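Researcher: We plan to redesign the surface later, but first we want a full-length starting point. Tokens attached.
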């Protein structure tokens, strides 16, 4: 059995490789996320020049793909950079993968990850911290989902699903659009999210041209390559009150960028939109909605289980790897000191620097 690994640019993928990728994803329930779809790869490659993919072949047959953004000195990040809630090797569960070997033979010096879907053969990865992405289970339809989660979700669940009812009972005209392709709606989402980032002191994701172009490109995608963008909106009395942008495949959707008019916060239009969106996705035959990492109450209230995710790095060779290992030693050394919150500062600083660098255009 001959195993061969190579690194290819996005535009060098042949039809046989593209077909193999789509077949692997279609056959694996654990790879249902739009992040693992060839369509997401194509959309990121259209707006960034650093997108590449590691391909592992067995006897000349492609059996595994690892899409990456490869920067200076062989420093690789997941496809989509900081926007990549889920990432990892696209391969059947029965395929043995030595991820460290894949990276080394492809010439990657460092691979940083933060939402890695575990696969057999992840030995050699450093600093792993496990998180999870809550999954809304829509198998069996919307009513079955509500029946399963109504008691388990507690007050948070009831609060989310009371918003739309209260709007209707108050005599407001509520209009939901599942697939809203009007440019004004997407523009409103960008505006609200940028204001939200600014108010919270967080980096504005949409201050970078490539992120806006990525969203626009996903919205224009047909879905033939497995994934497309979806803008949904909620109007109250003719006024846009809430907007959400996410991704979907025939099997799964990813809840990504929700926003609402802060002037209408008391009416909870974001919750009302979420209820409508879940019902519509169930009607479309979508079986799972992935809420992404983060321990938020609404995610635990809606989700039935969590997909395991890992955060860490692989440092393989060269100066970049030496620097990454040194940074990790400094971070873990500081955390071991009895300095209280100060001990977390180096790690937070390194993560912030890496996140900012990940948003840099390429």
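Model: Full-length starting sequence:
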């Amino acid at each position: 059995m001959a195993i061969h690994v190579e690194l290819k640019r996005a535009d060098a993928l042949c039809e046989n490789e593209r077909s193999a990728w789509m077949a692997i994803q279609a056959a694996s329930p654990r790879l249902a996320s739009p992040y693992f779809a060839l369509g997401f790869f194509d959309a990121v490659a259209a707006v960034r020049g650093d997108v590449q993919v590691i391909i592992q072949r067995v006897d000349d047959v492609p059996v595994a793909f690892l899409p990456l953004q490869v920067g200076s000195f062989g420093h690789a990040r997941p496809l989509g950079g900081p926007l990549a809630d889920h990432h990892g090797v696209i391969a059947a569960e029965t395929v043995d993968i030595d991820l460290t070997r894949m990276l080394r033979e492809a010439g990657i010096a460092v691979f940083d990850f933060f939402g890695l879907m575990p696969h057999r053969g992840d030995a050699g990865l450093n600093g792993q911290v496990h998180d999870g992405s809550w999954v809304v289970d829509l198998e069996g339809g919307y009513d079955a989902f509500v029946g399963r989660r109504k008691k388990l979700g507690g007050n948070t669940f009831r609060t989310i699903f009371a918003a739309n009812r209260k709007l209707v009972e108050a005599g407001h005209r509520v209009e939901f659009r599942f697939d809203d392709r009007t440019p004004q709606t997407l523009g409103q989402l960008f505006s609200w999210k940028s204001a939200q980032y600014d108010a919270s002191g967080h980096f504005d994701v949409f201050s970078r041209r490539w992120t806006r172009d990525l969203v626009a490109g996903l919205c224009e995608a047909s879905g033939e390559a497995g994934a497309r963008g979806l803008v949904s909106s909620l109007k109250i009395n003719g006024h846009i009150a809430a907007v959400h942008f996410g991704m979907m495949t025939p099997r799964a959707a990813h809840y990504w960028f929700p926003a609402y008019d802060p002037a209408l916060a008391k009416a909870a239009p974001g919750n009302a939109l979420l209820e409508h969106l879940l019902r519509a996705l169930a009607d479309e035959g979508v079986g799972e909605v992935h809420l992404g990492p983060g321990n938020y109450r609404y995610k635990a209230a809606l989700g039935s289980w969590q997909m395991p995710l890992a955060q860490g790095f692989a440092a393989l060779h060269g100066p970049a790897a030496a620097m990454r290992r040194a940074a990790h030693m400094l971070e873990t050394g500081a955390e071991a000191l009895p300095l209280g919150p100060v001990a977390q500062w180096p790690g937070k600083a390194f993560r912030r620097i890496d996140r900012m660098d990940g948003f840099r255009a390429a």
